[in-house]
Design brief:
The chain is of the alpha+beta class. It has two domains: 92 residues, no CATH class; 40 residues, no CATH class. The chain is built from three helices and eight strands. Strands 1, 2, 3, 4, 5 and 6 form a six-stranded antiparallel beta sheet that branches. The protein has a two-stranded antiparallel sheet with strand order 7-8. Strand 5 and strand 6 form a beta hairpin. It is globular. The relative contact order is 0.13.
Amino acid sequence: MDFGFTNDIGRLEAADVYREAAIADGWACSPTYDGSEQMERASTLTKDGFEMSILSRDRREMPGKWKFEASISIWGPDRLSIKPPGQYDWEKIKAGIRTCNSCGAKDVATHRYSFAGRSCDKCLPEAKRVHEHDGWTR
């Protein structure tokens, strides 16, 4: 996984567009690191118990392997993760509460694994096996 690090400016621009669309759709938005980083680089958004974190950092001024950092993370009111739709879509985000992050099954009961993983009944044993190994909470 690249954890959002990329050299593709398109991913950076897509994260900015996502943030703008969420704000236009009524999400409250604030800087994640108030006072040390602008909201356009690191923002926390909330709406109806959902929370979203969007990072869109242009790192070209810093020497290193990656030019940009662009990531979108979403959690439902149950504090479990929701896979972000490719483009902002409030209905798909809400449906994410009943969507398995492992197999993609829709309109199913989902359960926690690890810290915030979301899985259906079928995928839960394997998700726990992979992520909840000895010492996983340390």
